[in-house]
């Protein structure tokens, strides 16, 4: 299974394209899951999605400094969260930030009850690159998986409205009061 999506965007006077690929994880060992789950049961993790989003952008240098914010909604307990790496969680709502950053995620939660795990992933810029804590979304997509009886079925990536913080605005404002979400 392989699902792809392209999302055009324009920022800082240049056009770009987000290329999203979601595929089912056929080999959790090859994808490195044992690095975060030392007692990995590969069969339990097989089938969960791997999402990669790469950028093509006509701007260069500082124009190409961007980031990713990922917002997750779990239908089985109606929990919403900002998905950040644990050691960055208190600093910023950014999943990654840098020069033409590639987005990568491979969620696998076989112990969760049946339901949907859906992410809204936003490509963002800080208009002044580094001076203020302002994030403006410029492109977005959704993706995730449906878990039924311990079996994950990846969901197709779909374009999303970048201006829609997907019901997470209150969570972002509360968790990151020093940041502004444009």
What value does the average pLDDT take? 93
The global form is globular
Q: Poorly predicted ranges (pLDDT <50, ≥5 residues)?
A: none
Radius of gyration: 16 Å
* H and E order: EEHEEEEEEEEHE
For the sheet with most strands, the description reads: 7 strands, mixed
In percent, how much strand structure appears in the residues? over 45%
**What is the domain tally?**
1
Distance between the termini: 36 Å
| DSSP helix fraction | under 10%
Secondary-structure content class:
mainly beta
How many beta strands in the DSSP annotation? Answer: 11
Number of helices: 2
What does this structure look like?
The chain has two helices and eleven strands. It is mainly beta and 182 residues long. It has one domain. Strand 4 and strand 5 (79-83) form a beta hairpin. The chain is globular and about 45 Å long. The model has no long low-confidence stretch (mean pLDDT 93).
SSE topology:
Blueprint: E1 2-11, E2 14-24, H1 42-45, E3 49-57, E4 65-74, E5 79-83, E6 96-99, E7 103-105, E8 115-125, E9 134-148, E10 151-159, H2 169-175, E11 180-181
Parallel strand pairs: 9-11
Antiparallel strand pairs: 1-2, 2-3, 3-7, 4-5, 4-6, 4-8, 8-9, 9-10
């Amino acid at each position: 299974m392989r699902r792809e999506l392209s999302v055009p965007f324009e920022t800082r006077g240049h056009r770009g394209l987000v290329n999203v690929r979601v595929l089912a994880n056929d080999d959790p060992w090859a994808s490195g899951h044992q690095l975060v789950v030392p007692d990995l049961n590969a069969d339990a993790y097989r089938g969960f999605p791997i999402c990669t989003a790469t950028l093509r952008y006509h701007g260069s240098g500082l124009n190409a400094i961007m980031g990713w914010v990922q917002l997750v909604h779990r239908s089985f307990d109606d929990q919403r969260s900002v998905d950040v790496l644990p050691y960055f969680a208190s600093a910023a709502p950014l999943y990654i930030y840098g020069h033409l950053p590639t987005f990568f995620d491979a969620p696998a939660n076989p112990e969760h009850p049946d339901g949907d795990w859906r992410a809204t992933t936003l490509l963002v810029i800080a208009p002044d690159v580094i001076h203020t804590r302002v994030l403006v979304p410029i492109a977005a997509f959704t993706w995730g998986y449906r878990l039924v009886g311990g079996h994950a079925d990846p969901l197709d990536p779909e374009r999303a409205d970048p201006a829609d913080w997907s019901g997470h605005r209150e969570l972002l404002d509360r968790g990151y009061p020093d940041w502004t979400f444009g």
